[in-house]
Amino acid sequence: MTKIWQSKSTKLHPMVERYTVGNDYKLDKKILPYDIEASKAHAQALLKLKIITPAEHKKLITGLNEILRLFKQGKFKIKLEDEDCHTAIENYLIKKYGLLGKKIHTGRSRNDQVLVATRLYTRKKLKQISEELIKLEKVFLNMAKKYQDMPMPGYTHTRRAMPSSVGHWAAAYVEELIDDHKQLECAYDLNDQNPLGAAAGFGVNLKLDRNLTTKILKFKKTQINSLYAVNSRGKTESFVLSVCTHIMMTLGRLANEMIWFTTPEFNYFDLPWKFTTGSSIMPQKRNPDVFELIRSNVNVIVGLQTGIKDICKNLISGYNRDTQLTKEPLIKGLGITRRSLEVCSLVMSGIKPNKKVLMKSLSPELFANNEANKLVMKGLPFRDAYQQVKENLDKLKVPDPAKAIAEIKSLGGPGNLSLSSYKIDKPL
Questions:
Q1: Rounded to two decimals, what is the model's pTM?
Q2: Which of the following is catalytic: 9, 157, 280, 418?
Q3: Do 203 and 197 contact (CB within 8 A), yes or no?
Q4: How far apart (Å, rounded) are the C-alpha atoms in residues 310 and 327?
Q5: Cα–Cα–Cα angle for 226, 36, 21, nearest 5°?
Q6: Is 420 considered catalytic here?
Q7: Closest to 221 measured CA to CA, from 213, 83, 185
Q8: pLDDT per residue over 312-366, tens digit each?
Q9: Alpha-carbon span 129 to 134, nearest angstrom
Q10: Marked catalytic residue, from 279, 296, 317, 410
């Protein structure tokens, strides 16, 4: 098969073909539907310019819909010799319509084709991540409300520090996830720009209505400078994955805590059997594999983001084939982030705190700062109160359960959650 860029008198060496194509033709199964969507919008722009007639436009739309239908049925294949989905689509249209099929690429380059298809794909995936983030926000907000008065030690330096509550712990995740969603909104806005019409980075001498395609594809804005549109490939993907990294860092902390807090040694929370795996040799094992994999996937996402940055840094302006290698980490990173959020919502909605264990975990020293503050309220300078309590730590006692809960509620943090002030995010 002759490439769309290849003359009949030249032939590409098979090894070079395999190396340069890589697995792009496989990855493009993810973005083919979005290239179809963008191609329909571009066909409308060509119709407006009268480069194609209404009858030809109708045929092209029919052909594009046919490709999409065959693709969903598993009957449209992207072959290595196609190089990518863009060429596979064009070859199909040429085979079906002849000269008309050759018109669809007018005013386009595969550079802006892959850019716009990737933007559309990323927009869809960010919306899915947004939905999963909101689900998890709701899970933790429900936990915060339900267990607001259930005691739980607060930790610093991985050591028990002060009395807190399960509600306070859960509300911290609500607020963190809300902040993560704000970052996701920034990534969504950055990605939500139409590069179609940039061609190879220097535009085309056709008066393509770029705002028309922006409107059809429901982008927020049109990317103005055609050279920057091409240069932004990789930088946009990197920023998207940096937000995914922050989301995964939240989940990584949660995963690490749940691995510890559900051990028999802690037993603060019960991890249901259906969320655990077993051992091939030890019949008694109940392993928190789901949390271990979430914790590890934080590092995977960091690596994917770093990989994109390393690929794109210091490139000269204009298209460079290097950026082809940003597609796989983007697709992989978006998928890992969405699935990690999804499984976290599932598991955390089934987690139950062990009240008896948590009550017993309130050891006397946790109330040291409370006692110092009581002395302060009687007029003693804090540093003197601190020393007095420190010298009498062995005399501290845990209040009875009712008083202990009352003391915890009196604290500025756990006792003043203001849960009604948390506004769950709206989907992107």
A1: 0.93
A2: 157
A3: yes
A4: 14
A5: 75
A6: no
A7: 213
A8: 999 999 999 999 999 999 999 999 999 999 999 999 999 999 999 999 998 899 9
A9: 9
A10: 279
